[in-house]
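Please check this today:
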Amino acid sequence: MLAIIILLGLFIGSFLNVCIWRLPRAQSTVWPGSYCPVCGHDLQAGDLIPLLSFVLRRGSCRYCGQAIAWRYPLVEAGTALGMAALYAHSGWGWQFLQDALLFCGLLVASAIDMELRIIPNRLLTFMTLAFLMLCLLFSPERFWPAFWGALSAGLLLLAPALLYPGGMGGGDIKMAAVIGLYLGWPSSLLAIFLGILIGAAAGLGWMVRQHKDLKAAIPLGPFLSLGAMLTLLWGEQILAWYKQFY
């Protein structure tokens, strides 16, 4: 079953690459079929085998010869590894589906945020509706913890945005609320705290290394995503470690 999950993750990762390219450009993610973003040539079935086609083509498009961005194989491999970790964590079931939706959505949001400094509303809306559907079908008792998780996580980032206009993007606030929706109360607070903590440390290190000032912006989305996945996989262990000091 783990091998099936990894294989499925590779193909899902290939679709996530389509989403990463098309969502911020307001294009359909299902039509037309995949094409080279440089020359626009339609890709054939042999060009779409995750990882393998990248290796066989030596990282370049066979139609125009232009290099294929390393993001494509990294997203495919990362999706497969992430799905395997989620399966090892919760096994197969509705919880795995929910966790996989969160992981895939955060991966797409992080990649877009890193490239364009935006988090598409279409993606966040889909993640919200997908969660509500799963919650209604499989676990309606989790609605209120999810509601309070979304509210608390969103407010946690809304407060500094109101105090320091321009310091926090609206997409980050909405993304935090979606993370809170999936993780629920009180795990949402841990996820946002970890994301901000890791983001602040990475941002300071980057500013020192690049000799930038505090006005230099870095995307927060990838760090919020990292905080969410750390909480999802090891939140209980992190809290247990923290409580031993009190």
Observations:
- The chain has two domains: 1-92, 94-246.
- Residues 94-246 form one domain.
